[in-house]
Amino acid sequence: MQLVEKVVGHKVFGQGIITDCSGNIVTVSFPQGDKKFIYPDAFANFLTLKNKSAQNKINEINNKRLEAEVAQKQALQEEQERHQRLYTLKITPNSQAAFHIDLNDLDEVFSSDAISTGCYLSGISKGKPRIPSKLMPNSACLLTGCPPNTSEKERRILGAFMVKDGFGGYMCKDGMVECHDKYKVRLNPNSTMLYWDYFDCSDPLPRWGNTVFKYLPNSTMHQILLAMKKVFQDTEEETLIHEFYQYFCEINRFPQ
Asked: Residue 248: which of 240, 213, 79, 215 has the closest Cα?
């Protein structure tokens, strides 16, 4: 908006003329001398343009700026509240999970950012989506699968993701666990990280069973992620895994 040479009124200095407008500084010439004001703030409190149409336009600018400031403060407050909720979540001992997945479905999981929990296999809920009641925003989920023509003992870790902020497993009636927007990592299918290496398997032929996912102790997940950090050192995945591990430790209160 062209403000130079426009007439303004001031509560103390009376009527003046705008002689310069550079950046956010407006210079007004009054009978007592030149005065500088911040634009557009001064037009909300001290200065009034004689031209009402021009003043209305500045009022609109000020209103939009104030609305933006209010929205920014609200967003900051919501982020602080979200942060507080995340870092004060109740820690339950078995709130992590490992999912079985066909290697051919890996693309779909990472493109949709969600994975199904499958259905109940028995009882009154048989056939209905399995509710992942123990999964919360501080839960990490492993994606695991067996390469073709291999035994269960060869089950590999294919990737991992943190559960999305705000996710409450007990409310997940459709059985779809949503991935975190940032903390997710896809591993090379040829990775040598074997899932059963992190469990005390007295049986030489471990069994997964018919369920889509299993709950894991927090300590086991921490052990696996720590090993993942070491295995993928000096690789393309290193930074992602390091950030993932840090976040997991922070919200599950593990020392790093």
From this structure: 240
Residue 36: how many CB atoms within 10 A of its CB?
Answer: 12
C-alpha pair distances (Å), 159 with each of 2, 141, 152, 239: 58, 9, 17, 14
Residues with Cβ within 8 Å of residue 144, at least 6 apart in sequence: 98, 99, 100, 101, 155, 156, 157, 158, 195
The whole-angstrom separation of Cα 118 and Cα 250 is 30
d(CA 238, CA 153): 26
183-221 pLDDT per residue, tens: 999 997 677 799 999 988 666 678 898 999 999 999 999
d(CA 96, CA 216): 5
pTM of structure:
0.70
- Single-letter amino acid code for the residue at 164: K
Q: Which two tokens stand for residue 168?
A: 């409450």
